């Protein structure tokens, strides 16, 4: 029964990882850009929420709408004003550019907010739980997180599959030059992709900010979890990313159950196992460009 | 550079200018064609692929551009559609200089390229490929159902991923996708590449119907036969230079082969 509880908690946590991973996967899919600043950008969202909730005196949950908007606009500007210029056939310039960005964000946050841990307080909802049996209880907050993740990922999937811009995203992912020949402005599209990716990771950043405390140096660790969820699930599949995040979450909670220090390690081991056995991930898109 | 440049094309308004039903030779030297390319020299990095290339296409005309491997045919089409940019005034469309305009904006003006090697979107279905073709569509006759009529072979493939199509099906899809933008000028780069002759004949049957809808065509081919048969006018490229221009009835096969091989 305790194991079942681990699995449930892991799945709940995995929803959050999937939310972190979705943007990373989208960006890589559309423009072959590995965003090493992804984790730091999620932190930026958490700090933005911190700045907003005080003066406006609102619950962090409510701040999400404003934070997502701000971070998405920032993402568009970041892409069009900076990263687009580093995009080449060679992935190295963007890797270096986002690595630099990661360091800049960390130092900026350190300068403004100090190295002290901060947290977002969402009130009593953080500790309330649904008691299923003596051993299993589901926290309201993790449940809300998971539901939000599923809804957001579902919306993303719908957007990619059903809308004109969504099709343009997939066409550009298949063949960037041919997409331009269809009248698709790739610079604008890359900006939109970054806006959507960062908007989604902003939600994740605020949720994680409510769940745990954070400080300016935790971004890279989040990037690694997101990256692992993407690889486990397989590139280019939104639902694969969700399953990847959940498997990672389950591995971490079970690992932590065995020994409190093994949680993260168990996640890494699962990631390595998938890399060895199914290098393209469990649910990779069937047709590659 | 070449010992015997073949120049069969009469100069604009020259002595033997016979105004045809569709203007091969310009009736007035002042009249602008739908597309004017004037003195384009371009290439890739330090490599020059085109040297001072000029040509014009009138509305409703079919221009065939022929030439051997590496002659610069695709480069010319890239310059026209905007994948390669030049000085603004060297490419004019409907009287408007567009040489610096990016490709996606030229689609909105009415220039579409069906690229060499088709480049269909492999992970998208046939239907989705067509919809993406209409991403910045102008108003006009072409729609998904009209393309299905034009290429009945696509009809039962609409929900199939483009990656699983045969070469001929992909080419039909690529042409249909290009038409979805309702272009005024459609550029076709080596439709026949790697396809069986019977398939090529099938695909070329679509050309009169495309022209009938008022679309102007530039057809690039290595294989002279098909293109010359449908063309109103021929331009032959050799090592990045225009070496022959004229109507099919004005140029002999010998002149074409001479221009083609540079002998
Ligand atoms: N992307 C590129 N980078 C560098 N050189 C190129 C590039 N594309 C073409 N070239 C060179 O430019 C010249 C003209 O090429 P282009 O593709 O226009 O020829 P083409 O007439 O279309 O030939 P083909 O019939 O083989 O398609 C060739 O010498 C080719 O090697
Ligand atoms: Mg070519």
Number of helices of chain A: 11
> How many β strands of chain B by DSSP?
10
Q: What share of the residues of chain B does DSSP label as strand, in percent?
A: 15-25%
Structural class of chain B comes to alpha/beta
Unreliable stretches of chain B, pLDDT < 50, 5 or more residues?
1-27
The helix-strand sequence of chain B is: EEEHEEHEHHHEHHEHEEH
Molecular shape of chain B:
globular
Number of helical stretches of at least 4 residues of chain B = 9
Low-confidence stretches of chain A: none
Characterise the protein shown here.
The complex is a heterodimer of chains A (289) and B (263). Chain A has 289 residues and is an all-alpha fold. Chain A has a single domain, classed as ABC transporter involved in vitamin B12 uptake, BtuC, CATH 1.10.3470. Chain A is built from 11 helices and 2 strands. A two-stranded antiparallel sheet of chain A has the order 1-2. In chain A, a hairpin with a 5-residue loop joins strand 1 and strand 2. In chain A, helix 2 (38-56) runs parallel beside helix 4 (92-113) and helix 3 (60-81) packs antiparallel against helix 8 (186-211). The longest helix of chain A has 30 residues, at 2-31. Chain A is globular. The relative contact order of chain A is 0.21. The mean pLDDT of chain A is 92. Chain B has 263 residues and is α/β, with parallel strands linked by helices. Chain B is globular and about 50 Å long. Chain B has a domain at 31-116 and 181-261: P-loop containing nucleotide triphosphate hydrolases (Rossmann fold, 3-Layer(aba) Sandwich), CATH 3.40.50.300. Chain B contains 9 helices and 10 strands. In chain B, helix 3 runs parallel beside helix 5 (167-179). Chain B has a 6-stranded mixed β-sheet, with helices on both faces. Chain B has a 4-stranded antiparallel β-sheet with strand order 2-1-4-5, with helices on one face. Chain B has helices at residues 73-81, 103-109, 126-133, 144-150, 167-179, 197-204, 206-212, 224-230, 253-261; strands spanning 35-44, 47-57, 62-66, 91-93, 96-97, 111-114, 185-189, 216-221, 233-238, 241-246. The chains are: A mainly alpha (289), B alpha/beta (263). Chains A and B meet through helix 6 and helix 7 of A and helix 2 and helix 3 of B. The complex binds adenosine-5'-triphosphate and magnesium ion. Magnesium ion binds next to helix 1 of chain B. Residues 73-74, 116, 189-190 of chain B line the site of magnesium ion.
């Amino acid at each position: 029964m305790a194991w079942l509880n681990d699995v449930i908690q892991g799945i709940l946590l995995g929803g959050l990882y999937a939310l972190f991973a979705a943007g990373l996967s989208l960006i890589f899919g559309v423009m072959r850009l590995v965003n090493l600043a992804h984790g730091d950008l999620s932190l930026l969202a958490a700090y933005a929420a911190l700045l907003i909730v005080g003066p406006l005196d609102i619950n962090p949950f409510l701040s999400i709408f404003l934070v997502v908007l701000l971070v998405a606009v920032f993402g568009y500007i970041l892409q069009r004003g900076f990263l687009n210029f580093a995009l080449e056939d060679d992935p190295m310039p963007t890797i270096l550019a986002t690595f630099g960005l990661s360091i800049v964000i960390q130092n900026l946050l350190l300068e403004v907010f100090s190295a002290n841990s901060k947290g977002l307080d969402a009130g009593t909802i953080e500790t309330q739980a649904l008691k299923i049996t003596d051993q299993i209880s589901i926290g309201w907050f993790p449940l809300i997180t998971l539901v939000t993740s599923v809804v957001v990922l579902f919306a993303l999937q719908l957007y990619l599959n059903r809308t004109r811009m969504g099709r343009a995203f997939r066409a550009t992912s298949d063949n960037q030059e041919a997409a331009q020949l269809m009248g698709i402005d790739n610079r604008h599209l890359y900006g939109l992709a970054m806006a959507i990716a960062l908007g989604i990771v902003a939600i994740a950043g605020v949720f994680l900010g409510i769940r745990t405390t954070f400080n300016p140096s935790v971004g890279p660790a989040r990037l690694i979890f997101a990256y692992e969820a993407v690889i486990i699930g397989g590139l280019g599949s939104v639902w694969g990313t969700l399953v990847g995040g959940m498997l990672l979450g389950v591995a971490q909670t079970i690992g932590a159950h065995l020994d409190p220090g093994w949680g993260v390690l168990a996640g890494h081991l699962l990631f390595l196992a998938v890399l060895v056995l199914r290098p393209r991930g469990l649910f990779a898109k069937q047709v590659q460009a | 550079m070449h010992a015997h440049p073949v120049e069969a094309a009469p100069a604009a308004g020259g002595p033997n200018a016979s105004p045809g039903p569709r203007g091969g030779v310009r009736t007035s030297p002042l009249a602008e064609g739908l597309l004017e390319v004037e003195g384009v020299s371009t290439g890739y990095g330090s490599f020059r692929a085109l040297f001072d290339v000029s040509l014009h296409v009138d509305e409703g005309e079919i221009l065939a551009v022929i030439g051997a491997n590496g002659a610069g045919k695709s480069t010319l089409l890239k310059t026209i559609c905007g994948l390669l940019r030049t000085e603004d005034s060297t490419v004019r469309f409907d009287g408007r200089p567009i040489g610096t305009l990016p490709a996606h904006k030229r689609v909105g003006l009415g220039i579409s390229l069906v690229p060499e090697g088709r480049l269909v979107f492999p992970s998208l279905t046939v239907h989705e490929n067509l919809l993406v073709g209409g991403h910045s569509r102008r108003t006009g006759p072409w729609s998904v159902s009209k393309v299905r009529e034009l290429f009945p072979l696509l009809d039962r493939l609409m929900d199939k991923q483009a990656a699983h199509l045969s070469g001929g099906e992909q080419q039909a899809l690529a042409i249909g996708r290009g038409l979805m933008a309702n272009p005024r000028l459609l550029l076709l780069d080596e439709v026949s590449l790697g396809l069986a002759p019977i398939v090529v004949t099938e695909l070329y049957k679509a050309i009169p119907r495309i022209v009938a809808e008022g679309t102007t065509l530039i057809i690039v081919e290595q294989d002279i036969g098909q293109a010359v048969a449908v063309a109103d006018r021929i331009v032959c490229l050799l090592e990045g230079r225009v070496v022959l221009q004229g109507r099919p009835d004005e140029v002999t096969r010998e002149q074409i082969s001479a221009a083609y091989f540079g002998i």
